[in-house]
Design goal:
heterodimer; A: Rossmann fold; Rossmann fold; GMP Synthetase, Chain A, domain 3; 5-stranded parallel sheet; 15 helices; 27 strands; globular; disordered C terminus; B: mainly alpha; Non-ribosomal Peptide Synthetase Peptidyl Carrier Protein, Chain A; 4 helices; 0% strand
């Protein structure tokens, strides 16, 4: 089924129901259907052909949703870009995927007109006028693109296996890669997720996740599939306000990531902002540190919490049934419906329970490959048991327990080799998070002549927490085997993040100070707060 | 005071304060300088640096989203405090 059908069917069932609520207003299913049909007509008129790419560079907004569906109805491929992207990244993506059209807003003009972007962006530009700004003469205004479009649906002849989206990953190593998803991948993902999440027509999702990320994009697709409503919030920068909005709009669902939940933990009085109507909360992107759970429960006292794991390359891999969370807080559960996973050795043979290996995924959400990167694609898409089937090697190390529950160990690339032993950064991070004074922690391996790599911990303490390096070291020594205890501990006021809110370890690696020469313990190590 | 705030933003978020791009009205979040954790850090800085207490409800764009806004907010808080002392 084509992704655009999700909207058509929702609009046919309940045209008048409010589908989207943003700060700027509401839109019904019929409104979104009509606007996207007209946009599709305009795009087609301007020369958008089947499988041509459309760069969507917008904040979370009704326009962004209409832009996506308008593109799909015209047979195009969406390439959503994070709204805070700067010119170099925009230029890189544009040069790579050669979009025919760019849809953005006037707020972004400084980036669009920056030198680095020059000559790489498509000529056809549709801009939404933010705050009554003027649209440059060489661009088409959003209003004109939508109002001026024909109501008669275009027939591009797209089929399920045609490309629907290129989602650029932030690339933990090297340059961003464009994950290619066809309509089959996307609709299969919607079905699998809905099968375990139990989303209903009456649900109202409070969404702060950027739509440029598959996690955010799929909130729309899931909502449309069942006819639920989506509240579009920009970000979680103002938690009290976002949560108040959630209460006003009677939100029943809240998708989050660990950094969002960490923000909750820093509220002066989390329970004061509780949203008792929220009945489910989801987490993905990085494992939920068990220490964060009490804060989630304070703000969402009646919610079932789903700890999940996935990659853009295959949407989602696993979920933990909420009732298992207390018993196995560190697990990310089992494979989502219609998918199969196994833990593999280097020859792709399954390893027995308890052994660590690479997680491999089979199922309909496995991507087609990376845009124009056949070698990198081949590396992660080995042939499956059936001819023509491709599996996905996640590049993540996992172990499975006797009952089949999955536990993330480390990114294959992140494993630290210290004194000949393998150290999982996550294991050390979990120990750090167990200290109540710690708000955020990241562990990386820094090249070291003697040890190979030195285990380095970067820690952000809670407001007004009294914490020294010595406290951290003592705690680690009490809970970790000696070779895992960080040799270098730095206290920081903040840690760099990628646009999706994940701690940016690549940035940390490049800014890490080399391990100091071992001086005697003659002078005590002070808390180093800086950076 | 605005300068202390400006310097904090430059230091914490690795912003180029050079070419005058970081104006008092620049929207800190829309421009990508600050993310959700960024706001938390700024709040903690303001409380420590200027000896004020900020309620969760005061963490809103009007107060937080530009250096100018932050400066005005702190001034108002300090004015409240000195009024309270007098009473």
């Amino acid at each position: 089924m084509l992704v655009s059908r999700l909207l058509e069917q929702a609009a046919a069932r309940e045209p008048g129901k409010i589908a989207l609520a943003s700060a700027e207003g509401h839109a019904s299913f019929a409104d979104v259907e009509r606007a996207s049909t007209r946009l599709a007509a305009t795009l087609t008129e301007r020369g958008l052909g089947r499988c041509d790419r459309v760069l969507i560079f917008l904040n979370n907004s009704i326009e962004a949703v209409v832009a996506a569906f308008g593109t799909w109805k015209a047979g195009g491929v969406i390439v959503p870009v994070h709204p805070t992207a700067k010119a170099p990244r925009l230029a890189y993506i544009s040069k790579e995927c050669q979009p025919k059209v760019l849809i953005s807003d006037t707020h972004k003009l400084p980036v669009l007109e920056a030198d680095e972007a020059g000559g790489t962006l498509p000529n056809h530009r549709i801009l939404a006028a933010a705050g009554g700004a003027t649209i440059p003469s060489d661009c088409l205004s959003w209003t004109e693109a939508v109002e001026g479009g024909n109501d008669r649906p275009v027939e591009p002849g797209t089929i399920d296996v045609d490309l629907a989206a290129i989602m650029y990953t932030s690339g933990s190593t090297g340059r961003p890669k464009g994950v290619m998803l066809n309509h089959c991948n996307m609709t299969a993902a919607v079905e699998s997720v809905l099968a375990y999440l139990g989303l209903r027509r009456s649900d109202i999702i409070l969404n702060v996740i950027p739509l440029s990320w598959d996690y955010g994009l799929f909130q729309i697709l899931k909502a449309f599939r069942v006819g639920a409503r989506l509240i579009l919030a920009e970000s979680f920068s103002y938690p009290a306000r976002v949560l108040a909005r959630g209460r006003d709009e009677h939100a029943t669902g809240f998708p989050g990531v660990p950094t969002i939940f960490a923000v909750l933990s820093r509220l002066r009085d989390p329970s004061k902002h509780a949203c008792p109507e929220v009945r489910y909360v989801t987490n993905t992107a990085a494992a939920l540190p068990p220490a964060i759970l009490p804060y989630i429960r304070m703000v969402f006292p009646n919610a079932r919490i789903y700890s999940m794991y996935g990659m853009t390359e295959c949407k989602r891999v696993s979920y933990l049934p909420p009732e298992e969370l207390d018993e196995r807080p560190r697990s990310v559960g089992k494979a989502i419906p219609n998918h199969e996973v196994f833990i593999a050795d280097d020859s792709l043979n399954p390893v027995p329970p308890g052994e660590i290996g690479e997680l491999v995924v089979r199922g309909p959400t496995v991507m087609m490959g990376y845009w124009q990167k056949p070698r990198e694609s081949a590396e992660v898409l080995p042939e499956g048991p059936w001819p023509g089937e491709r599996m996905y090697r996640t590049g993540d190390l996992f172990r499975m327990d006797e009952e089949g529950y999955l536990y993330f160990v480390a990114r294959k690339d992140d494993i630290i080799k210290c004194r000949g032993q393998k150290v999982s950064p996550k294991e050390v991070e979990d120990v750090l998070y167990a200290m109540p004074e710690v708000a955020e922690a990241a562990v990386i391996g820094v090249p070291d002549e003697v040890e190979g790599q030195a285990v380095t911990a970067l820690v952000v303490p809670h407001r007004s927490a009294q914490l020294t390096e010595r406290d951290v070291r003592r705690h680690c020594a009490a809970h970790l085997e000696s070779y895992m205890v960080p040799g270098l501990i730095e206290l920081r006021t903040s840690l760099p993040k990628s646009p999706n809110g994940k701690i940016d370890k690549k940035a940390l690696m490049s800014s890490a100070r080399p391990k100091p020469e071992p001086a005697g313990e003659a002078h005590p190590k002070h808390a180093v707060v800086g950076e | 005071m605005e300068e202390r705030i400006r310097q904090f933003i430059i230091d914490t978020f690795s912003v180029d304060g050079q070419d005058g791009a970081l104006t008092p009205d620049m929207p800190l979040i829309e421009s990508g300088i600050m993310d959700s954790m960024g706001v938390v850090e700024v709040v903690e800085f303001l409380e420590d640096e200027f000896d004020i207490e900020i309620d969760d409800e005061e963490i809103v764009p009007e107060n937080m989203n530009s250096i100018g806004g932050l400066a005005q907010f702190v001034e108002a808080k300090q004015a409240d405090l000195s009024r309270a002392d007098v009473e």
